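Please review the protein record below. Let me know how this chain folds according to its tokens.
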Amino acid sequence: MVKEFGTADAAAEKLGRSKGWVSQRRALLKLAPELQAALRAGDLAVRHARTLAKVPLEEQVAAWEAAQNPQPDKAKAEPETHDPQPNSEEKDTAEPSPKAEPADKVVQALKKLGADPALLAAAVRRHYSSDEQRRLVDALELG
């Protein structure tokens, strides 16, 4: 919009928004593509996205994940309470419960993001060490 109208002030006026609103939205263009997708899907609040946009690009996804999972050891310590592989009927119709298993949360996020395999592979490479990537491949082959 700024390119179309020439200035942020003109875009703000045309949109009926404040200059600050336009400036804040322009800052969101500095987000990693995964976070822009999460923002569009409603999984990332604008106020959090603005904070993440200030983080170096290569650290944004990790910062978002850390903010979502402040106690990762707690999830590992909790025993499984239900079958993590629901039947295909449940998979298509059931919404994850508020106490969804970590795998269910990942499945939900993948569905919302469209989970392009190339994007997923890039995220895995960025997030996991080489050893963790090998363990993931081994786990996928066993699955």
Notes: Confidence is low (pLDDT under 50) at residues 74-97.
